[in-house]
Design brief:
By secondary structure, the protein is of the alpha+beta class. Among the domains are: 39 residues, no CATH class; 135 residues, Butyryl-CoA Dehydrogenase, subunit A, domain 3. It is 61% helix and 15% strand. It is built from eight helices and six strands. Helix 1 links the parallel strand 3 and strand 4. It is elongated, with a radius of gyration of 32 Å. 23% of the residues are buried.
């Protein structure tokens, strides 16, 4: 089963003195990168968020946004040492002339923290996060299912086209050998017959695409197998698609007949489209 690197999930909680809202969203990325944003507080909960995400995901750029509103009697504290260091720095640079207000410091990471004694609120935050995470992971699976269906459709289209190409080229090969013999014999009537047949056959075999067809079929089967795997890898599928693209390119180069060449070009286009889709797979 493949999973998309694009996902979104959210959850909320509210009681008499607390409102919590968490959003989790992700986009494509080569590695796993998790960032945490909060417009109200910066608490020790961030480490919990990141560790939990890292256990669930392998790749993707993940953004976690926490919004939290509490009543005036909520259990918060200010990091006095950090505040003192900040004031000392600002005074030394002559950047402040009076006392700092809450609005001046609330967005500084670590300056405002939930009291450790406020364990219940932390548990609420974790619960909201885990609920949002479930929705987030579900959206990645749903998007992955859509991509999986698209890839299978393209695989089927490529297989149909390559079967058509193989059939046409098989018939064309015998015609090419016959035509080559006739043309060369017309020019070189006194040429040694056996040697002539060998050279013409060798020339015609260069135009044979049976090996390319076999390798394309092998790569398609490999991708299909990977898509059905319980733990599929976007990186592995991308590598197979690179090999598939090389074979489809060789196939296009070796074919001379215009209509058949167009079919081969259509195969290349489908492979390129698959490569674009797979960039969104974990």
């Amino acid at each position: 089963m493949i999973k998309s690197m694009t996902g979104y999930g959210q959850s909320r909680y509210a009681d008499n003195d607390t409102e919590i809202a968490i959003q989790i969203k992700s986009v494509n990325h080569r590695f796993l990168e998790v960032s945490f944003k909060s417009s109200e507080i910066k608490s020790d909960i961030e480490e919990y968020f990141k560790k939990t995400i890292s256990k669930k995901l392998k790749r993707g750029k993940v953004d976690i946004h926490l919004k939290m509103k509490t009543s005036s009697n909520a259990s918060f504290k200010i990091d006095r040492k950090l505040l003192a260091d900040l004031k000392k720095l600002l005074n030394s640079e002559s950047l402040i002339s009076d006392e700092l207000m809450l609005r001046d410091i609330k967005d500084i990471p670590g300056i405002l923290k939930i009291n450790k004694s406020s364990n219940q609120k932390i548990q609420h935050v974790k619960k909201v996060f885990n609920d949002a995470l479930v929705n987030f992971l579900k959206s990645r699976v749903e998007e992955g299912t859509k991509i999986n269906k698209t890839l299978i459709n393209k695989i089927n289209a490529i297989q149909a086209k390559q079967t058509k190409v193989a059939k046409i080229c098989k018939n064309d090969l015998a015609k090419k050998i016959k035509n080559y013999k006739k043309r060369v014999k017309d020019i070189l009537e006194e040429y040694e017959p056996n040697r002539l047949d060998q050279e013409i056959t060798h020339l015609a075999m260069k135009a044979d695409v049976s090996e390319e067809i076999e390798r394309i079929d092998f790569h398609l089967q490999s991708i299909s197998k990977e898509l059905k795997s319980k733990i599929s890898s976007g990186k592995k599928i991308d590598f197979i698609l690179q090999e598939l693209f090389r074979e489809s390119n060789t196939l296009t180069v070796k074919i001379d007949e215009p209509k058949t060449k167009n079919i081969a070009l259509e195969i290349k286009v489908l492979v390129e489209e698959m490569r674009e889709q797979i960039q969104n797979i974990e």
